[in-house]
Automatic annotation (TrEMBL):
UniProt organism field: Pseudoduganella flava
HAMAP family: RPE
Domain of life the protein comes from: Bacteria
Segments crossing the lipid bilayer: none
Entry protein name: Ribulose-phosphate 3-epimerase
Sequence positions that bind a divalent metal cation: H34, D36, H67, D176
Catalytic residues (UniProt): D36 (proton acceptor), D176 (proton donor)
Cellular component per GO, a single term: cytoplasm
Length: 220
């Protein structure tokens, strides 16, 4: 039986009350906190760094899943590991040495993953499957919350699920972008087990109602 995980993205949270926001969303049933890092270089937006990760760390016990949308990748990895990140993922196009970046994350005691934009092929996984703990399929182009789910992502989730099954390894398959109560079941059916949702959760007053509704869809 698949373990499904809901990973609210703090991108749509109230940044002036971030500690309270992450506590509330975990109390509402979140399994993971998804932490979007944007650098105004790899993506056209700027968010938060290791200091903010460190600041929210004492507020929650659940894993913090750091999604790096930055270039270069390597020099920020140790800082996030020290700031309490549990999972660190990066975009393969943003790293000159993908194997080295994955190894660096693991050497710092975190789970490592690769992120695939809508037009990025999964072939980047071919020689590094044994160093990957998470595969993150983007169902929007990265940079902003509140965009619409790109349906072609479902095919890619299916493809990634096949690769994971063939590997025989325990690899999380996460989907990120435009996930809502209405489409979470389709993403699960395609093979995703971890669901990032920003605006769908933080855009509603009752986080628990949204997370419960997502779980009902996943159980159906
Ligand atoms: C987009 C980010 C996402 C984003 C998701 O670049 O990686 O994590 O916050 O937000 P929604 O769920 O609103 O699409
Ligand atoms: Zn993200």
């Amino acid at each position: 039986m698949t373990t499904f995980r809901i990973a609210p993205s703090i991108l749509s949270a109230d940044f002036a009350r971030l500690g309270e926001e992450v506590r509330n969303v975990v109390a509402a049933g979140a399994d993971i906190i998804h932490f979007d890092v944007m650098d105004n270089h790899y993506v056209p937006n700027l968010t938060v760094g290791p200091l903010v990760c460190q600041a929210i760390r004492p507020h929650v016990q659940v894993p913090i899943d750091v999604h790096l949308m930055v270039k270069p990748v390597d020099r920020i990895i140790p800082d996030f590991a020290k700031a309490g990140a549990n999972i660190i993922t990066f975009h393969p196009e943003a790293s000159d040495h993908i194997d080295r970046s994955l190894q660096l994350i693991r050497d710092h005691g975190c789970k490592a993953g690769l992120v695939f934009n809508p037009a990025t092929p999964l072939s980047y996984l071919e020689h590094v499957m044994d160093k990957v703990d998470m595969i993150l399929i983007m169902s929007v182009n990265p940079g902003f919350g509140g965009q619409s789910f790109i349906p072609q992502a479902l095919k890619k989730i299916e493809q990634a699920r096949r690769l994971i099954d063939e590997s025989g390894r325990d690899i999380m398959l996460e989907v990120d972008g435009g996930i809502k109560v209405e489409n979470i079941a389709a993403a699960a059916k395609a093979g995703a087990d971890t669901f990032v949702a920003g605006s769908a959760i933080f855009g509603q007053p009752d986080y628990k109602a949204v997370i419960d509704a997502m779980r009902t869809q996943l159980a159906a």
